[in-house]
Design a protein that fits this description.
Order of helices and strands: HHEHEEEEEEHHEHEHHHHEEEHHEHEHE
Strand order of the largest sheet: 1-6-5-4-7-9-8
Number of helices: 14
Radius of gyration: 21 Å
Structural class: alpha+beta
């Protein structure tokens, strides 16, 4: 996968020579909608399903000139929202067991397949019946329209953030879940009638008390275009096709939000925002330790190495850290600003995390999990009434040189006041 990553690097020559004009009139539609004659169910009408709206609901609306922009519970690079969510639901009283498409803008679930003796469990390595299966797909052109080849990175990060949104919505109701990457994505893509413009990336499952093994979906699901128009990007399609996407361990017993009260977690979901600038004020070491609790250990478990620069944490030496170990003392605000494509936010922060990995075989999942961890950081930071933002654009080679590592650089994440 290194060949794909290398082709999406940003270096200074490429950055200063590239054309930056984008005609926003041509932006593709950022949501998918099944035909009007399909049955729709409002989430607020079903007590057991109300938690689903916390995955991607509209939390605020901003007006820029004449244009209104809906802000969602989950962030997305450039506000392009390539992720779509399909949910298989079983054994909810008064609700049809079936496969549903989630419509966040309307707070609806659209029934696209009623279950009989079949189910998407058939496509998983562990085929026992599940109560809920959340399947995340990506409509890649929404992101490639703006970011071209580098879209492969943002699609993976956006998937991770969305995964974190699903996990936090389940955690709010104390519903135990597992992240499961191990399913037949090619077979499921075919039976959902996806063309190559949309593909499944990952899932979260919730166990059932039944051990029945459902059969293959008895009929294919109808094809519905995920955008109002699409242009083929062969590089993105080849990346998805050739990236190893199997044999990654299932992730269970995730303990990253347990210390937040239900009220604090709900407020964090509702108030999460991506900040545009910091005031440059100090944050406390206590805030730093709370925000990053269990984060470094979780990341290391999946071969994600996190560095950070302490730009303004009270009581800690300023400098570059690997995990929690100081490896280079000094003030690096200007350096971090430069590395973040001269975006001041990466240098004005209390601290800026840099996600890296040297794993190639599990590149696909390591990148997704970096986005997942970042979503947890969003919620933990918001609960402390602090601000943060992910930064997906940076100088790759210069960042590796600064960190003195051969690892691939995945993500910057800035936190502060």
């Amino acid at each position: 996968m290194q060949i794909y990553h290398d082709q999406t690097d940003i270096n200074q020559k490429k950055y200063f020579n590239q054309a930056n004009f984008i005609d926003y009139r041509t932006q593709p539609r950022a949501y998918k909608k099944y035909p009007h004659f399909y049955q729709r169910f409002n989430l607020d009408d079903y007590e057991e399903l109300k938690f689903i709206k916390n995955i991607g609901k509209i939390t605020d609306t901003k007006t820029y000139g004449k244009e209104k922009v809906d802000l969602r519970a989950n962030p997305s690079a450039g506000g392009l929202y390539p992720c779509e969510l399909y949910i298989q639901i079983r054994a909810v009283k008064g609700f049809i067991s079936g496969i549903y498409h989630y419509e966040p803008l309307e707070n609806n679930l659209t029934l696209i397949h009623e279950l009989s003796n079949d189910g998407v469990e058939f496509y998983f390595k562990e085929k026992e019946q599940k109560k809920f299966i959340f399947l995340i797909s990506n409509a890649y052109f929404r992101t490639a329209w703006k970011y071209e080849k580098r879209a492969i990175r943002y699609l993976l990060l956006d998937t991770g953030h969305f995964l974190g949104s699903i996990y936090s919505a389940l955690k709010l109701e104390n519903i135990e879940c597992e992240i499961d990457f191990n399913f037949d994505k090619t077979g499921l893509n075919e039976d959902f009638s996806f063309d190559n413009f949309e593909s499944f990336y990952t899932s979260i499952t919730v166990k059932s008390d039944k051990t029945i093994e459902p059969k293959k979906l008895r009929t294919p699901i109808i094809n519905v275009c995920a955008c109002d128009y699409q242009l083929k990007e062969t590089f993105v399609e080849d990346f998805y096709k050739n990236c190893p996407k199997d044999d990654f361990e299932k992730i269970s017993n995730i303990d990253l939000l347990s210390d937040l009260s239900k009220n604090d977690l709900e407020n964090s979901i509702n108030n999460r925002r991506s900040i545009r600038a910091f005031l440059g004020k100090e944050i406390s070491e206590e805030d730093f330790l709370f925000i990053t609790k269990n984060i470094f250990d979780f990341a290391n478990k999946f071969n994600i190495e996190i560095y950070f620069t302490n730009n303004n944490i009270e009581g800690m030496k300023k400098g570059l850290y690997k995990n929690v170990t100081l490896i280079k003392e000094g003030a690096f605000k200007e350096k971090m600003t430069m590395l973040g494509l001269n975006q001041k936010i990466s240098g004005q922060s209390g601290f800026t995390l840099i996600f890296t990995s040297n794993i190639i075989n599990n590149y696909f999942y390591s990148y997704i999990l970096s986005g997942f961890i970042a979503q947890i950081l969003y919620l933990r930071t918001t609960s402390r009434k602090l601000s943060c933002s992910g930064i997906g654009a940076y100088f790759d080679d210069e960042t590796r040189e600064f960190l003195d590592t051969k690892n691939n650089i995945f993500y910057f994440f800035s936190i502060g006041k």
